[in-house]
Amino acid sequence: MSKNSDNSCCHNNSNNNNYNNDKGSFSPSSSSSPSKQQERRNSRDNNNNNNSTTNWTKRYPTTLPSKVQLSISKVPYVDTHTHLHYVLDKLPDKFNVTSYEILKQDHFPSNFESCINVLCDPLSFNSDEIFPDTYLDWKKMANVPFMYLAVGVHPHNARDYNNYIENNMMQILKHPKWIFKKVF
């Protein structure tokens, strides 16, 4: 997965853009013109690169609270909005977290019961083909015992919405671990 330059939870990986990992920003391909929002984001990143995700993590080193610090209650809880696939994308090198099970075992409080992991990037909707058998594969996420899933297109990716994306979402929503599937 890629890093987003505005520190938001979802990533814009449309086919019209090329992601530049070194600068933490997108650069439009020659076949498309950038949106006004993307132009502002690129301008901001070029003028003040301290706002990029990469520099944010350099300025504020990532730390994880201990399980003891998180275990302030014994009441079981469900986290209703997570992006654990993005967490795993950022943690392996520094914390040796390579699976959802290790993440839960080593870093979640004992009263954590389950979560709803949200997929909001259209790239996630066919991740079973792009990233098969990895933590980014939605089918693998659906097999994690403590994880339920929600799917939708984040407003950052609204311009990428089309019939193909909708059909992929509809296929995914047929899986029994998806939340809100009754809406459709």
Automatic annotation (TrEMBL):
Gene3D superfamilies membership: Metal-dependent hydrolases
Signal peptide start and end residues: none
Location of region: Disordered: 1-60
Biased composition, class Low complexity, residue ranges: 1-35, 45-55
Domain of life: Eukaryota
SUPFAM superfamilies in the record: Metallo-dependent hydrolases
Protein name, per record: Putative deoxyribonuclease TATDN2
Source organism of the structure: Rhizophagus clarus
